[in-house]
Structures are given as C-alpha cells and as structure tokens.
Amino acid sequence: MNAKQRTILFLIADTGAGHRSAANAITNAIRIISQKEQEEWLIRTASVHNKQGSTSTGDAIGTTIQEATEPPPTYRIEIVDVFEEYSRFPLREAVKLYGPTIRYNPRLFGEVFHISNREGPVLAGQMLTTPLILNGLLRLFTTVQPDIIVSIHPLLNHVTVRALREFHLKIPFLTVVTDLVTVHYSWFAEGVDGYIVPTKQAQELYLKRGLDPEKVHLLGMPIDPKFTLPIASKETLQRNFGLLPGLPVVLLVGGGDGAGGLQTAVRAISHARLPVQLMVVTGRNKRLYAHLQRTKSHLNVPVTIFGFVQNMPELMHAADIIVTKAGPGTISEALACELPVILSGYVPGQEEGNVTFVTENDVGVLAMDPPTLIDALRRLTKPGSADLRRQLANAKQLSRPGASFDIANCILNYLPAPDAQTIWQTAWGKRRQRMMSGRLRSAIRIRRLRTSLPKPLLHGPLLVRRLTSSRTRDISNKSGDLTHPADRNL
After folding, report:
1. Residue 200 contacts by C-beta under 8 Å, 6 or more apart in sequence?
2. Which of 126, 156, 289, 386 is most open to solvent, judged by the fewest CB atoms within 10 Å of its CB?
3. Does domain 5-221+405-413 have CATH number 3.40.50.2000?
4. 8 Å CB contact between 154 and 14
5. Distances (CA, A) of 408 to 150, 177, 197, 220, 228
6. What's the whole-number mean pLDDT along residues 183-198?
C-alpha cells in the first residue's frame, strides 16, 4: 500500500487531564475514520479487479481502475506537551504550578484568570514567554514536519502563530477550544486558520472579538468516540457491576486526580441514609481509594469503589445521576449519556461558565455543600420525579456524542489533497528546513559559547559582543550537531 501519509501535530499542555483527553478523543476519531476509509478502499479495489477480469483491458479502462484503486491517505499523529518537552526554564516549571494552585488556592487562580483575561495582559505574557519557547517550537516543527498543527491549549495559540510567521511556514493551524463558556482571551489568536468551539456562547465570544466568522466552526466538545458505540442496557450494566436491582445509582466522579470533595459527598450521603447506591471513581487518588475501601463497611449506603478507569461510558450508562466537579469534558460525557448533573465544585474563573451552562440549560444544579447536595438527590430520586424527567429530556437535546468525529473531519478537510506535495516535500520546503536547522544550530552554538566563557567576561557586554562575533564561526566548526545536550533546553 503506497498511500501518502499526512502528519497531524497536536499541541497540548498537561495542566489538568482535559487537554490530553480532548486530543486523545480526536485522535481516536481520526483513526476510526481512517480505518473505515481503508476498509472501503479494499472493498472497492476488490470490486474493480473483479470487473477487470470480466472485461477487456484497454488504456481507458486501465486509467479508470488506477483512479478507482488509489489508496486513501494514512495519518501519523503526534501529541506533544509543548511546555514540558520544548520550553525553557522558568516557563517549563511555572506551568506546573497550575495543578497545585487550583487544588490548594483556587481563589488565587480565579483572580489571576480574570486579571489576565484581556488583550493587554495576554500580549505582555506573550512577550515574556515567547523567547522561552520559540526555538523549541522551531525544533519541534523541523523534527515532526507536520502537515497541520492543532492547538488544544490557550497559551499555545499566539506563540504558534508567531512561530509560523517568523519561519514563513504555510502550515494550516487550527485551535480546538475546550472551555464551554468562560473562554479566556488567549484562546483566540488572529492568524489561526480555523477555530473549533463547543458551544454557542463560545462562538459569540469569538465573534465579539471581530475575527473572521468564516473561520469558526461550532462542532461541540471532543469526547471519546466510545460514547457513540452501542452499549448494553442499564439493567445489564448494573448487574455486571454487581449493583442492587431497583435502587437508584449515583455516580461520583472527581476528575483524573480524584478531587472535587468526593469524601465529603460520600459521608454526607451516608449520614442522610438516602435510598441510593453509590459508584465512586477516585481516579489517581490512591489514598482516597484506600480510605474508602477501609471505611465502606461502616457506611449506611451500598458503595462500589473504582480507581482510575477506562470504561467511563459503561459507568455513566449504568448510573441514574452523576455528581462531579464542573470539568467541561465530564459534563459533555454526562450529557452524551443523558445523565442529570449535580456539580459539586468548580475552578474559579476557568469553570464558572460551565456552571452557568449546566444550570441555564436545566440539565443539573450546583451543590457545593452537603445540605444542597442531599436536597438535590432527594428531588431527583423521588419516584416519578418531574425534575429528573425534565433534566433527562434537556440533556438529550443538548448532547453531542459524535462531536469528536465532526472535529476530526473538520481537521482532515484542512489537510493537503492526497495527491498534493506537502510543504516539506517541495524544494522551497526543503530549503526552509535547512534554513531553520541552521538557525537552530546557530542558537545552540551561541548558547554554548556564553556558557563556556569565564564569569568576569560574562559581565562585560562589550567583551561578550566582540567574542561572540569573532569566535562563533570557529566554535561552530568544532561544535556537534542538533543532538547536543544543550539542545534539550531550547
């Protein structure tokens, strides 16, 4: 099979699990689409060859057969945590503060979010951080040679536009927004070829910025394609998980790290002796998992405890209600499973709009304290609950379980035609690659020179300039290639 391969580069940062989950969801959708294309091609090829055997073989027929049996492109997909792998200190370390900040001081994070959610702070931040990541992006693009670049993180959009312009690379660049309503100013950067947004509210924010309305695509939130697959009935799933028949099932989820007040919620439900049974997903929080396993025999409600899971669609379809923090991915997954949502908490600033999205669309409520949580569960689990019926209907209307496939097809439409040369295969592209590699080598050599000078000389700007201009060429002849350890910090 000589199908031309297309390379798709996803830019993410592991600030929380949502960005990588979105990239994985789109990647899985692309692979399913590609597999279907390959299967259809094999069927078409077999059919054409069968017809060829029963007809004469003239030049015209041979051309038709060649066109009909041309294989579809294959896709090479790279998902890269840009800050971790391609940025320099202190930016690389500063990004790691996201997790501890939202866990231990969420109010501070909310204040920073609102203060920075304007053009001035965003541009100032870009001026400070661009020198710490620009050469890393250069190295990334030269190494991966992508045919399209997709950003799934707000802090990577402006700098990527800057890098593509500075290196004169004509590569399609898309942004997939993964915030439902509270979309930070940095998500939208002028110069991006296409924006994929999950909600009408996000689309309206985009249009208020005065950006090209032809470039925005309202396609939904990317969630795992498994949420579109046929699944067993609720009764069968509950039986498979060892749940009691006829008793409402409440699923408690705290995100990948098991945060979100799970222990408090379990204790409150047990103390209220609600007529429910619980499924608790603790994620990577091994300490909470162990604690709940030790104490579940003392609880007043049946509890089944899970750690980090890969079968969330089955768990959600087995449940009747979900209690979760206001992460956009989990909310979208719950809607795909037509579950009413009780929000147990949210990250100030970033997730405030998600709460509004849930409450204004009447698919759930916010319950940040035990009394409100217990009251919401009582209303939803009451036999013949009108609240439950209404929220289920609203969730069904609002859900977009196939969003990942729509997003994947949108991305694939921006790729070069299957029979077209990629930018890296053209003579211009090869010259550009050599020039970029040369620029990168120059940056590395200058840095080696500076690190090898005696400290007194480093404090004399005139001496440094003279030495840099007179000795860089000599040192470059003695330097190694791009595999030098200094390259890792560029």
Report:
1. 218
2. 386
3. yes
4. no
5. 11, 14, 13, 12, 14
6. 95
Spatial separation of the C-alpha atoms in residues 247 and 479, rounded to whole Å? 71
Domain with CATH 3.40.50.2000 in the chain: 5-221+405-413, 226-399
Cα–Cα distance measured from residue 155 to residue 349, given in angstroms and rounded to the nearest whole number? 16
Looking at domain 226-399, does it have CATH number 3.40.50.2000?
A: yes
* Confidence band of 486 (pLDDT split at 50, 70, 90): very low
pLDDT at 176: 97
This prediction's pTM: 0.83
452 or 34, greater pLDDT: 34
Question: Mean pLDDT across the stretch 438-449?
Answer: 54
